[in-house]
Design brief:
This protein is 28% helix and 24% strand. It is of the alpha+beta class. It has a single domain, classed as 7,8-Dihydro-6-hydroxymethylpterin-pyrophosphokinase HPPK (Alpha-Beta Plaits, 2-Layer Sandwich). Strands 1, 2, 3, 4, 5 and 8 form a 6-stranded antiparallel β-sheet that branches. α3 packs antiparallel against α4. It is globular. It starts with a strand and ends with a strand.
Length: 177
Amino acid sequence: MGATETAFIGLGSNIGDSARTLWQGWELLGEHDGVMPGRISSPFLSAPVGMDSSFWFTNAVGFVQTTHSSLQLLDILLDIEQRLGRMRSPEKQGYQDRTLDLDLLYFGSETVDMPRLTVPHPFRNDRLFVLAPMAEIAPDWIDPETGTTVAAQYQRLLTNIEKGAAELQEITKAAWE
């Protein structure tokens, strides 16, 4: 086995039994050789951000230890999305309602900017549904691009929302059943 890397995964769903789907996706991730799930955050209910939808999302963030490369892990995430009913419509532009979305938020301190994968995730610092759950499980994680902790990024976003310098985002912490 090769070296192990810590990867943070954002989980989201706004179609069907979202909390159950997130949990199923998390369990399927752990069934892959070379992927050892760590802690997963509480689920958070959030209004859609950057898209028009009448369906709220259930979101969470978890971390895994993996011996896979970032691209191999991405392929695993895409396979799990598809297995749990994710349909990507190529003719639709922008974000779409989804049964499951698994985003690779961080892959250790690696920075990748390729057509298939950008890590750290480009919108991580602008989304409460990423920062709130991540701050719950890894507040001291250092962002390799900004050099700041997740907790500091979360506070910065809350302050910017309060001042009207960032988009208002509705979010509520929930609990797993």
